[in-house]
Q: What sequence folds into this?
């Protein structure tokens, strides 16, 4: 089985985040997270926060937002202890809402399996960057080095999303027709608000300059579209928003790195609700978040530490990189 992340204590959460979350992506955050995990005094400070607010990515981003020096643990720790009251206050009002447009490179092949026209409803939409898969250009590159390109109907996008593929995925030759779209989020991000946009940028890990450039480019594209993102809970708000979708389009409910934030009970309610609706359902979450998808994979679980499982209507389609960088298509079940 895949190694599970360990959230059992604050220290183990930070150690696990260093290994499974930022390991291999952000040496700075990796060092800081290991530093916290091995520092009982700082762990004790963070452990005063409500459990969800102890999240490593949240504390690291709040400290960064407020000016913590990014680098070795010593100076960062000194800054954190001196500025703890401000970091604590910031963490209490913020949440990690990382919006990653590159996830569209794995979501779009799933969307293209569905007959259109499509009404796309994203649960946990953040700023809406994954609500506009048809506004970006794509370059899927197979293990053999073959490129599959796709552009919006009106030509090449300012943002090109690259994605490495294995397993011969059915990549779309044309953009799906999306005739209606809306997001649902506990805390919608308004991309025209400079503070909100800055927070989305701050959530990108320090060394990921390409990722930051992609997010900035996607924000510019989506800002112009003025996405409709309704404030509401994934389960409580879904039916009302879904009822607004045009009835002559196929309603697609999409969640990506979102229902992981629900309690297990709320997540089970959400899954029951969405599977009972007259809609198709695309899910892109960590393994085990949608139990039927993980069960459908059987034994073929990869050992990579950070994969997401892409699923359509609760059935697994592919293991994917958490930021849309890889699409490893699963062989169709026989
Ligand atoms: C990490 S972001 C993912 C954004 C986007 N789906 C993506 O893949 O880039 C998760 C989003 O889920 C939202 N969220 C968390 N719990 C929620 C809930 N119970 N109902 C609705 N949205 C929720 C958060 O506010 C946040 O904007």
A:
């Amino acid at each position: 089985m895949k190694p599970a992340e360990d959230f059992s204590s604050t220290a183990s959460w930070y150690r696990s985040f260093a290994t499974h979350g930022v390991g291999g992506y952000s040496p700075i955050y990796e060092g800081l997270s290991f530093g916290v995990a091995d520092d009982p005094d700082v762990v004790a400070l963070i452990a005063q926060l409500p459990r969800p607010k102890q999240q490593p990515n949240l504390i690291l981003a709040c400290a960064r937002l407020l000016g913590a020096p990014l680098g070795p643990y010593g100076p960062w720790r000194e800054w954190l202890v001196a500025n703890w009251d401000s970091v604590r206050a910031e963490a209490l009002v913020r949440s990690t809402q990382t919006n990653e447009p590159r996830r569209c490179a794995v979501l779009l092949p799933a969307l293209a399996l569905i007959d259109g026209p499509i009404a796309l409803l994203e649960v946990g939409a953040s700023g809406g960057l994954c609500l506009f898969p048809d506004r970006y250009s794509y370059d899927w590159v197979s293990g053999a080095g073959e490129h599959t390109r796709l552009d919006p109907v009106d030509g090449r996008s300012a943002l090109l999303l690259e994605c490495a593929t294995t397993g011969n995925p059915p990549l779309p030759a044309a953009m799906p027709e999306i005739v209606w779209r809306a997001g649902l989020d506990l805390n919608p991000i308004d991309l025209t608000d400079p503070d909100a946009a800055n927070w989305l940028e701050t959530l990108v890990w320090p060394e990921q300059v390409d990722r930051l450039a992609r997010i900035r480019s996607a924000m510019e594209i989506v800002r112009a579209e003025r996405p409709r993102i309704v404030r509401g809970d994934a389960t409580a708000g879904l039916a009302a928003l879904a009822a607004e979708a045009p009835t002559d389009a196929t309603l697609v409910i999409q969640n990506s790195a979102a229902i992981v934030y629900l309690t297990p009970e709320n997540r089970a309610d959400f899954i029951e609700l969405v599977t009972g609706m007259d809609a198709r359902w695309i899910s892109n979450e960590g393994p085990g978040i949608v139990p039927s998808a993980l069960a459908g994979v059987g034994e073929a679980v990869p050992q990579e530490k950070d994969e997401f499982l892409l699923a359509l209507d609760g059935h697994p389609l592919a293991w994917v990189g958490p930021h849309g960088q890889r699409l490893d298509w699963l062989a169709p079940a026989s």
Observations:
- The first strand starts at residue 118 and ends at 123.
- The pocket of S-adenosylmethionine is lined by residues 95-100, 103, 123-126, 129-130, 184-187, 233-234, 256-258, 261-262 (CB under 6 Å).
